[in-house]
Amino acid sequence: MQGFVKENGNYDVLIIGCGIVGATIARELSRYTMKIAVLEKASDIPFGASRANSSMIHGGFDDEPGSAKAKFCPKGNRMYHRLHEELDFKLRKFGSFVCAKGESEERHLKKLFEQGKANGAVGMEIVSGQKLREKEPHTAPDITAALWCESGAIVNNFEATLAFIDNARQNGAALFMETSADGLLFDETRSSVRGVSTNRGNFRAPVVINASGVYTDVISRMAGDDSFIIHPTRGEYFIFDRTVGGMVTSFLFSCPSALGKGITVTHTADDNLLIGPTSVQQAGRDNRNTTVPGLDETFDGARRLVPGIPRNMAITTFSGVRANINTGDFYIKALDRPRGFINVAGIKSPGFTSAPAIAEYVAELMRENLGDVVKFENDPAFVPERKHIPRFIDLPNEERARLAKSDPKWGQIVCRCESVTEAQVVEAIRRGARTVAAVKLWVRPGTGRCQGGFCSPRVVEILSRELGISPLEITRHGGDSYMLTGKTKQPLLPESAQ
Ligand SMILES: Cc1cc2nc3c(=O)[nH]c(=O)nc-3n(C[C@H](O)[C@H](O)[C@H](O)COP(=O)(O)OP(=O)(O)OC[C@H]3O[C@@H](n4cnc5c(N)ncnc54)[C@H](O)[C@@H]3O)c2cc1C
After folding, report:
1. By residue range, what is the domain housing residue 418?
2. What is the pTM of this model?
3. Hey, which residues are catalytic here?
4. Distance, CA 381 to ligand 1 centroid (Å)?
5. For the segment 258-303, what is each residue's pLDDT rounded down to a tens digit?
6. Three-state helix/strand/coil letters over the chain
């Protein structure tokens, strides 16, 4: 019907994008009585850069004092050390080393140390190569010194993003998946924003927050702010089997260059070994391919730090796309015109670390600039804590037995590599997972050595049963990414022959 636009209700705040930035802002604003909706175009979260990164909670020594990155990163670091307990996501306090080879790189370590002190980073010390190798015996013998940062930590980035949005939803925020912002709504004079138009109709609100990652410049132009450009920059990774996860016990950086922080080697929050990323500018915002040259560069860079990494123990590769901004620093701004529009753009590394601090700042910006259109009344029903789905793999045997007694689904292993039970998959679906990829992000079936070879059919079966739909309708990640096309031994005949 031409001219018909579906109206999806009135809100106080609309957030475009549910990466770590959108999720932390939603959680921060859910402390107040305001009505919040998060619009996310993907079918599973995290989807953008928040899904594919190094998951490092940086200490805060990398960025120029006085920059927004230097302000938000150390604060975000401190917040994560509390938030992971409040919101029950995995964070491991491994600490980090920046490794230097020779005098010129050692001079750079000193610069980072001073920068860190100025930024308020804590727990730093420059140590000798010898001292590094006492803690990390697999590191290269030609590393001459290293900057240790005790407050560096590793998170499970899927769990962290889900935790913030899960808690925001518990506190009343609405999340609309597969909902792509394709335009903004304004008042008659275009002096104020009035909402967002999407593939699912119009959402109305006097405040719109643009947290769309590599698309922030596209959305910003819709509001008339074309003062920055995003240059998508891909980083490629290898992830290795848990059996070699113990080759390092902390996060190892190369000495940074003009291109970025360089290739890193780390023990992940889930005990794998992770190496990467490269840094290659590309035209496409959604191109998350890996390439032979990119992976070779990753591997060669990682072996400069840890020479013995065995390539044949890699279980998969992936890449993430950074929202590199031409202006350099994070760009967080409430526009004067149209009023109500807030850009949270150029959030590249250390964006994951900075996100909770950015979220607090965005709330302050709103309070200062838009306090007349959105009321900041504390919600007495706000609950700051939430629990993740129990991680069967980490539980002691007595607890496993207790759970299996309470519900036999806790005794049914779906994913053998990661010891994921049917009960975990069912709970992920109850909390909103609708695709095979979403279940994987929630509770990890398919992240192990066989990469879903054994568990995917079981996950499809459970999704189909729990959602009450045919297995033929189950997708990997939404759209037409169907897992199954029909029954076996039934040739697909052309329609005319049926
Ligand atoms: C290779 C790499 C390594 C990194 N390593 C680290 C690290 O170790 N530590 C660290 O602190 N930071 C790191 N970062 C940076 C960090 O990952 C990002 O700063 C952070 O994830 C950005 O979050 P975001 O929410 O802004 O963007 P994203 O996570 O990209 O989220 C944006 C969301 O917006 C959605 N969206 C886009 N357009 C629309 C639309 N029109 N309508 C609705 N939804 C839309 C997308 O689907 C996406 O889900 C790394 C980044 C990369 C790429």
Report:
1. 392-473
2. 0.96
3. 58
4. 30
5. 666 789 999 999 999 999 999 999 999 999 999 999 999 999 999 9
6. CCCCCCEEEECCEEEECCCHHHHHHHHHHCCECCCEEEECCCCCCCCCCCCCCCCEECCCCCCCCCCHHHHHHHHHHHHHHHHHHHHCCCEECCCEEEEECCHHHHHHHHHHHHHHHHHCCCCEEEEEHHHHHHHCCCCCCCCCEEEEECCCEEECHHHHHHHHHHHHHHCCCEEECCCCEEEEEECCCCCEEEEEEECCEEEECCEEEECCHHHHHHHHHHCCCCCCCEEEEEEEEEEECHHHHHHCCCEEECCCECCECCCEEEECCCCCEEEECCCEECCCCCCCCCCHHHHHHHHHHHHHHCCCCCHHHEEEEEEEEEEEECCCCCEEEECCCCECEEEEECCCCCHHHHHHHHHHHHHHHHHHHHCCCCCCCECCCCCCCCCCCCCHHHCCHHHHHHHHHHCHHHHCEEECCCCEEHHHHHHHHHCCCCCHHHHHHHHCCCCCCCCCCCCHHHHHHHHHHHHCCCHHHCECCCCCCECCCCCCCCCCCCHHHC
